[in-house]
Design brief:
With 429 residues, this protein is of the alpha/beta class. It has 11 helices and 18 strands.
Length: 429
């Protein structure tokens, strides 16, 4: 196959990228699973927005403080300044944010010094991503391919010429492209307990290591402090940070409050783990009873119903919560236009690392960061577009059946290696 641009991933970043590319470019988007099975669909809390100029310094400082001041300040500035434009674009695609008297309603989450988070009930990610997917499906220049896995890139002399794929049929094929975009999501599939879809296993990281493409901070992995405790196998159900932003409280085994619920995620996770060890319990308790019942049912209907299905009425009783792997701050190193160290290759969303999040992501910056830098990547490609004349021919017989398990092992080993280097340098968080 030959196309102008191939995008690997159909989450918010990949979809928004396609929507910001010219209509005269042929685009192929591939999804490793079903189109709707991206973590963007799972995001509950919301998306941050700079409310006005008076909020800039506070928002900037909150992002840096959460990130242990390891953030790329230029990237943070770009994200914050661009946020109103992104929200306006989302509304044009039909995204429905909660309003009161035609003005945005804002909520607050951990690490934020003010309310600046837009939301749609407790399914903001689904609201945004479903509207973007519908818009992409209406584009005549876009082809969507489900159950299609990238197993390699075609790369010659540090120039990316496209991707090698395993099709839904099981056959191996090549998609040649003038430009390639990684929008592959996170790495939750590497972990036993994660809020991510299990097919997100960091394939793009292993492929980047194979071809000498730079990675950054891949040992910075965020644990979300509150997921519903369960002994069932599989993905963990997230209890949104905005629940605590609206007043939910944490209790130990003796039903005593033991910490500030609105600390940054890594700090709160540490406090919860300490309390679990003291209690000798695999969870702590979260009470949503301080939140008015009507607010729970209107703002958090998905959480309310899921917990009800699991046997908990959050309007009347506490629920057991436990930390679980949630987000990937590191990734494929990119500049402020999302360009990687390889020519004609871009990376956007959770699989990339532009330094916005530093060592720990501030709540509800993920969707915003993905959209801001996906649009910048699209603009950069448009402004610098040239055609590729010659393409390499890979040996498709060289790809083994157990490639994904090999990639998992490669990524986990590299994460541990970089973590040990950081610890030896005295920079362990």
């Amino acid at each position: 196959m030959k196309t102008d641009i191939v995008i690997v991933g159909t989450g918010a970043a990949g979809l928004f990228m396609a929507l910001n590319l010219p209509a005269d470019k042929n685009i192929i988007l591939i999804s490793k699973s079903k189109l709707e099975e991206s973590d963007s669909f799972l995001a509950q809390g919301g998306i941050c927005m700079l409310k006005d100029e008076s909020d800039y310094d506070s928002y900037f400082e909150d992002t840096l403080k959460a990130g242990h001041y390891e953030n790329n300040r230029t990237s943070v500035d770009i994200m914050i300044r661009t946020s109103p434009d992104i929200i306006h674009s989302l509304e044009n695609f039909g995204v429905d944010f909660e309003k009161e008297n035609d003005s945005f309603l804002f909520t607050r989450e951990g690490g934020h010094s003010d309310k600046r988070i837009l939301f749609h009930k407790d399914v903001t990610g689904k609201e945004i991503t479903s509207k973007l997917l519908a818009a992409v499906k209406n584009l005549k220049n876009c082809t969507l391919m489900e159950n299609t896995t990238m197993i390699d890139i075609v790369c010659e002399s540090n120039t990316c010429e496209g991707i090698v794929i395993k099709c839904a049929s099981g056959e191996t094929d090549v998609i040649y492209a003038d430009y390639t975009v990684f929008a592959c999501g996170g790495i939750g599939g590497l972990y036993t307990h994660s809020t991510n879809f299990p097919h997100l296993t960091g394939d793009a990281l292993a492929i980047s290591l194979k071809h000498g493409i730079e990675l950054e901070n891949i040992d910075y992995i965020q644990i979300h402090p509150t997921t519903l405790y369960s002994q069932k196998p599989g993905r963990r159900f997230l209890i949104s940070e905005s629940v605590r932003g609206e007043g939910a409280l944490l209790y130990n085994a003796n039903m005593e409050r033991f910490t500030d619920e609105l600390q940054p995620r890594d700090v709160l996770t540490a406090r919860i783990r300490e309390q679990m060890a003291k209690d000798n319990k695999p969870f702590v308790w979260l009470s949503m009873k301080p939140i008015p019942v009507e607010t729970i049912k209107s703002h958090f209907p998905n959480i309310y119903q899921y917990c009800l299905d699991e046997g908990y009425d959050v309007t009347k009783e506490c629920i057991p919560v436990v930390p679980a792997q949630h987000y990937f701050m590191g990734g494929i190193k990119v500049d402020s236009d999302s360009h990687t160290s390889a020519d004609r290759l871009y990376a956007v969303g959770e699989t990339s690392c532009n330094g916005v999040h530093g060592a720990n992501r501030l709540a509800s910056n993920s969707l915003l960061e993905s959209l801001v830098f996906a649009k910048r990547a699209a603009q950069h490609i448009c402004e610098n577009y040239t055609k590729l004349d010659d393409f390499s021919v890979p040996d498709l017989t060289s790809y083994t059946e157990n490639l994904e398990s090999q990639y998992k092992e490669i990524v986990l080993k590299e994460i541990e290696h970089r973590k040990s280097l950081r610890e030896k340098a005295g920079k362990d968080l």
